[in-house]
Amino acid sequence: MALGRVQSFNRKRIADTLVQALEATVCTFGLMWGFAAAHQPGAIWALLSAVIVLRPGFEVSLRASKVRIAANVVGALVGVAVGTITGSAGEAQIALALALVIVICHWPPLEQGVRSACAGVVIVMMHEGSGSVRHMGLERLAAVLIGCFAALLVGYVGDKLGRRLLPRDWR
Question: What's residue 82's pLDDT?
Fold first, then answer.
């Protein structure tokens, strides 16, 4: 009896792992090729955001993803705001934006997303080159949003395909 549960658990875990690996692969190629085809920068930031959102099991992932997406967007918005207001994205501004995001994310709906919010800050504020902090921040904010929603879409499709293709005792 116990051996049956262990085998079932292992099958489910293996299936989840393989589906998540496939979803990450699809997100990688889809985002990298999509951004290249559109001649837009930010594919790596979209991919990073997608990886933060991807989780095995779409239903569980969707609940957790809502918090991660909201927190990631809050972090990105705070990063853009701090960078725009100060006109810079140096260490002091990044530290200020991180501190603000950590305080904001202590609001109960976002508590589980503090790390995602901090990642959003870093994504939009790590700025090299001579471009405008605001312009770069907004480009990266768009990339964050695209990555988050790409992960949700790929996760949804992966879940539906997994339910159709995997044997019942593997789900």
Answer: 94
